[in-house]
Amino acid sequence: MPHFLRRLAVLSILALTGCDDSSLNGAYEASIQIADEAPMAVGLAVIMDDRIMADGQSAAVIEWVREGTTVTAVGEQGVRLAQFSIMDDGLLVQALPQSRIIYRKLDL
Description:
Layout: H1 2-14, E1 26-34, E2 40-47, E3 52-54, E4 57-59, E5 63-67, E6 70-74, E7 80-86, E8 92-95, E9 99-105
Antiparallel strand pairs: 1-2, 1-9, 2-3, 3-4, 5-6, 6-7, 7-8, 8-9
């Protein structure tokens, strides 16, 4: 199960690629939270203006759409790759059907 959760987190992290908002640039620790359990760290990601890298993989986002505190990654042919909420404390949160991925920016 931890291997599956790590892969799920990596795929979610990859969807952050290409963020036009430079305030999102940086290194992030990704944690998965299932129901009311404590978040469990599953990996690291680096977000740059046009790319994100995680677990030896990278992906491109064609466009970022920001509406209030919600950021949506759009890929080729207008496909929505992922949607994230930006919390007041700076965390990025992606809601999944039975869990959520929490991205905490690291101070380097």
